[in-house]
Write a structure and sequence with these properties.
This protein has 325 residues and is an alpha/beta fold. It is built from ten helices and twelve strands. The strands form two sheets. The protein has a six-stranded mixed beta sheet, with helices on both faces. Strand 6, helix 5 and strand 7 form a beta-alpha-beta unit.
Length: 325
């Protein structure tokens, strides 16, 4: 039953990656007028969750302008919460220590489950062509001699994070749907968690694992690390030459992760968050570029139903773990 649910979940990914062109506003709203809001009595401090994967200094460099713009616009003290891993943001939401965060689809599903529906997705990243999706990719070193997924049999793979869609849940679901058992010692000789997408890339380049999985926009040139994602960011930092890697597998499209708020917060707060982000790319393009990076052009409205497939996947993975135990 568990395998069947995983197969069905993998097959259900594509319908949830519809184009956001119809959802996106014809004209972005103006940035909210600066000033303290009535909701500030319930939200005296604004706490923004930032997922792990980079060093704290790198995240601070990218997000400080974003934080300050929140503070200047809504005139409430605003701080960034840097999680050491994906699970840290989920735990902080569960303890009501965060008001808003940009999440991966899998960590949103985990947080929604852990909080009994206590979080709400409001916006999803929109790409230049209007789509709201990305892909998972499996990569090896170019000098490994591995040129296909089939040749990974008997080799090791590093998963990025147990709470990552592209770095864990989606590859495992699609491998099972293709008849490949992703458990260690079955198809792969060895599996492990790298501690994040960046760490997984380093582990493969340093020959600690034969392959890794991460996320990419799926658009643009593969030789440049696509237009957005972990590989593109590493190329832009000068940390990676794509000639050193080989992409051997790609997933179906995956719905981009949402911007999430606590469900118990005032509706006026949620509206301000939506308006702020829809206006951000045009009003403050450098801040938007720093936060989103790559080819993303803005956000579009989203809802919980767009991520229901990831809730199903997490439930199926939990059932699989119980079977192993």
């Amino acid at each position: 039953m568990t395998s069947r649910r995983l197969l069905l979940a993998a097959a259900a990914i594509a319908p949830f990656t519809r184009s956001a062109l119809a959802q996106a506003p014809a004209q972005a709203p103006a940035m909210p007028t600066p000033g303290k809001r009535a909701w500030a009595s319930e939200v005296p401090n604004l706490r923004i969750g930032v997922l792990g994967g980079e060093t704290e200094s790198e995240r601070l460099g990218r997000y400080e302008g974003y934080r300050k713009l929140f503070e200047d616009t809504f005139q409430v003290p605003t701080r960034l919460y840097f999680a050491s891993d994906y699970g840290g943001v989920a735990q902080a939401f569960g303890a009501k220590q965060l008001e808003i965060a940009n999440m991966s689809p899998a960590i949103y599903a985990a947080t929604w489950m852990d909080t009994n529906g206590g979080v709400e997705p409001i916006l999803v990243t929109r790409e230049r062509d209007g789509s709201t999706s990305y892909i998972a990719v499996m990569y090896t070193r170019a000098d490994s001699g591995i040129t296909s997924l089939e040749q990974m049999k008997g080799h090791s793979i590093a998963w990025a994070d147990p709470n990552s869609a592209s770095g864990y849940l989606i590859p495992r679901a699609e491998l099972r749907a293709a008849g490949i058992d992703p458990e260690p010692g079955k198809f792969f000789s060895r599996t492990g968690f790298a501690g994040g997408h960046d760490q997984g890339l380093v582990a493969v380049l340093q020959k600690q694992y034969d392959a890794g999985v991460t996320w990419a926009s799926g658009q643009g040139e593969e030789s440049q690390g696509y237009t957005r994602g972990v590989l593109r960011a590493a190329v832009e930092k000068g940390m990676l030459d794509m000639k050193d890697l080989r992409i051997i597998w790609k997933s179906r499209p995956i719905q981009n992760g949402p911007i999430v708020v606590r469900k118990d917060l005032p509706d006026a707060f949620k509206k301000d968050m939506v308006d702020f982000h829809l206006a951000l790319p045009a009003a403050y393009p450098e801040i938007h570029k720093a936060v989103e990076r790559g080819s993303a052009v803005g956000w579009a409205p989203t809802r919980h139903e767009d991520y229901a497939v990831f809730v199903d996947m997490r439930k199926a993975e939990a059932a699989q773990r119980r079977r192993r135990d």
